[in-house]
Design a protein that fits this description.
Blueprint (H helix, E strand, L loop, with lengths): L6 E2 L5 H11 L1 E4 L5 H17 L9 H7 L3 E4 L7 H7 L3 H10 L7 E11 L26 E7 L11 E2 L13 H5 L10 E2 L7 E5 L4 E2 L9 E10 L8 H4 L2 H4 L4 H9 L2 E2 L7 E2 L7 H6 L4
Parallel strand pairs: 1-2
Antiparallel strand pairs: 2-8, 3-4, 4-10, 5-8, 5-10, 6-7, 6-9, 11-12
Length: 293
């Protein structure tokens, strides 16, 4: 595997990061999270990870095959780990990247999904895929719908299942095909696939159109990471965050976290559009602040 991914540090210029994402569809940000943040997130999700059952029935057998029998999933992490909700989901550099990539196409962006994915020993390579396939009904060409990331909560190596990713695939012509047509295309040449090896606290950040997949775990230890992605505010999210993080839980979080979870109005009236997500024709985040939700 000969492809490489450009790397940045946590103090990187967001414009430079976005330029690399525009060119390659992916970057690695080393040291995005401080060591103490990683430690707190791991401690706060340990119980949920221990209780997670890799054999739990999912809504579709295809999803069970997609994740495989050795991957533990913890959903709704912002409602489980306050550190994740405040220090990870609201990370300033991630949001600065979202400002540049997503905000031109919406009044506000939102959390799409915040999951823990723990790939255990024996996990096989995940199918290579594009995350934006969940919005397959959006006509093409379209603006960028999503900014996604996999954040290492332990060191990621080629042996323990580091994310495999195809730089530049966000520009491939097959992106205009349906997900089923994409799946029928030949697998990418192995020389085009990069492995996102990185220390704990780092993140591989990519657009929804960049082909990627989890790696196989050939070690004796689980590979724990977080799948964190944001999307345009007028899209339906992959995870129903209002139920995963209900009002009684969201009320305890800072306003910025509440807004990202979708509790804020998507108001495009100043852009010549309309509005989405009102309650009693009011902004839900204001009702939440007043204890009325």
């Amino acid at each position: 595997m000969g492809a490489t991914i450009e790397r940045f540090g946590p103090g990187a210029d967001p414009d430079a990061v976005c330029a690399a994402i525009g060119r390659d569809g992916v970057v690695i940000i080393e040291g995005l999270l401080a060591t103490d943040v990683v430690e707190r997130v791991n401690a706060e999700v340990d119980g949920a990870a221990a209780a997670a059952d890799p054999a739990e029935r999912l809504f579709n057998p295809v999803m069970e095959a997609f994740h495989g029998p050795y991957t533990k999933q913890v959903t709704g992490v912002p409602g489980i780990s306050r550190t994740f909700a405040t220090d990870v989901m609201c990370d300033p550099l991630l949001l600065a990247i979202c400002d540049r990539i997503l905000l031109p196409s919406c009044a506000r962006y939102q959390l799409n999904i915040g999951h823990l994915l723990q790939r255990g020993p024996g996990a096989d390579d995940q199918w290579l895929h594009r995350d934006e396939a969940v919005w397959s009904d959006v006509p093409r060409p379209a603006p960028e719908l999503q900014l996604a990331s996999v954040i290492a909560l332990v060191d990621f190596t080629a042996e323990n299942g580091a994310t495999r990713i195809v730089p530049g695939s966000h520009r491939w012509p097959d992106r205009e095909l349906s997900p089923l047509e994409q799946a029928a295309q030949p697998a990418p040449d192995p020389d085009l696939v990069a492995v996102a090896e990185m220390p704990a606290g780092s993140a591989v950040v990519y657009t929804g159109g960049t082909i990627h997949g989890g790696g196989g775990n050939r070690t004796d230890s689980p590979r724990r990471g977080a799948h964190l992605s944001y999307c345009l505010g007028w899209l339906r999210t992959e995870e129903n965050n209002y139920l995963s993080v209900p009002p009684r839980v969201a009320a305890q979080l800072p306003r910025q976290a509440q807004e990202l979870l979708g509790y804020a109005l998507h108001d495009s009236m100043q852009r010549g559009g309309g509005y989405l997500g009102t309650v009693r024709l009011q902004d839900p985040v204001e009702l939440l602040a007043r204890g009325e939700l």
